Amino acid sequence: MDKLSPQDLILKLLKEKTLVQLDVRHRTEDVFRIMKQVLAEMAHTLSKQAALIDKRIQVQYKENNEFEVTLTVAEDVLIFYMQSNIFTFDRTHPIWQTSYVKGNEANAYCGSISIYNFLSDSFKYNRSNDLGYLIARIFINHDLHYFVEGKRQLGFLYNNFSSAVLDKPAIADIFNSALLYTLDFSLFVPPFDNVKEVSVSAMEEETNKMQLQTGKRLGFRFSADNDQVK
């Protein structure tokens, strides 16, 4: 068999790799559009139901830009962020052990949508030092197969990459799990020794902008929360 020229190799990669990545990008964009619809519907329904409990409970959906939307529920903000790039996985990742990927390595190329959890007051009071937490990453390939890396149930309920297809009901199910996890993820006071000293400038900023760093688990490690995002 004749050895391929550099130009032929370039064209081969464009055909076998770049086209797959373009397909994955379009699938991920399609999924993100559906996710926006699901979140808007979820916010509308929750807002009406929450108002019956107490009108102080605020539920709001907001589209920030092409790649990012937010869902605010009471004291929590979930940020959904779509990566513009396409990824594959190192050879130690479990997906390489599946017959689905072994049979076609192109199936390992995935788009990624991340879900972050922040405190709503962090944005309300411009507390730029506050921490957010990555609670899940959703990976989608050109067949719309998907799996989720994440916290607690998010990390093991949605990991059938070989056959699971990311449709609208599956998206709603993932979002419900993410919101349940978030609402059960309480704000804990940091250890006394971590905050016993504060500078004059930090205190002045705290007075003016409430800038002292806050996060749901700032300074703590909990055995119940050791299931870190992979």
Average predicted confidence as pLDDT: 84
Instruction: Quickly count the domains.
Output: 1
The biggest sheet, with number of strands, parallel, antiparallel or mixed sense and barrel status, is: 6 strands, antiparallel
The amount of beta strand, in percent, is 15-25%
How are strands sequenced across the largest beta sheet?
Answer: 1-2-3-4-5-6
Extended strand count: 6
Overall 3D shape? globular
Oligomer: single chain
Radius of gyration over C-alpha positions, nearest whole angstrom: 21 Å
Give the proportion of residues in helices: 25-40%
Descriptive report:
The protein has 230 residues and is α+β, with helices and mostly antiparallel strands. It has one domain (6-225). Helix content is 36%, strand content 18%. The protein has five helices and six strands. The protein has helices spanning 6-53, 99-102, 120-124, 168-183, 200-209, and strands at 59-65, 68-73, 76-82, 111-119, 133-140, 146-150. Strands 1-2-3-4-5-6 form a six-stranded antiparallel sheet. Helix 1 crosses helix 4. It is globular, with a radius of gyration of 21 Å. The N and C termini lie far apart (43 Å). Mean pLDDT is 84; it is low at 218-224.
